[in-house]
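Let's practice the habit of predicting before peeking. Look at the sequence and jot down your guess about where helices and strands might fall. Then scroll down.
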Amino acid sequence: MKKNFSYRLFKFGAVPRKLLPILEQENIVVSDEGMSGKFITKNVKESGRRYLHRFERFSGCLVITKKRLLCYTFSKRQINISIYDPKILKIFYSVPEDNTLSISFESSVFHNGWSGVIEFQFKTDKTNQFVDELKSIGVRQGTPVKADTTQD
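Done guessing? Here is the structure:
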């Protein structure tokens, strides 16, 4: 799949160079960088802010190692979770269309005081490889439901 223009020109959406040796040491299982993507929020509320439906395009990377799931959009870390963290079971994946991988979660799982769904959609030829690995680490197929704040 064709890489994002900002990646081809400026390397936006690349795996951070400082992190690459660490990821290689953790044995990269599947990764892709320079992917075009969409960042979508649905009814996200945090202290002082509210986004009913926010949508942004990005150039990003997604990496799964034997130890973690990592996502960067442009040069900002969005997801960095150990595959052994129980919260990994509260992340969801879907394949909304060919060569598109969606990863989503209820924001309250990772941010106290937040609510609403955060979703990242990636355009990648490696969708099937990512899906296989996401399943193997416990990420569930589907979409998140509003978190029950009385448990956890």
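How did you do? Residues 148-152 have pLDDT under 50 and may be disordered.
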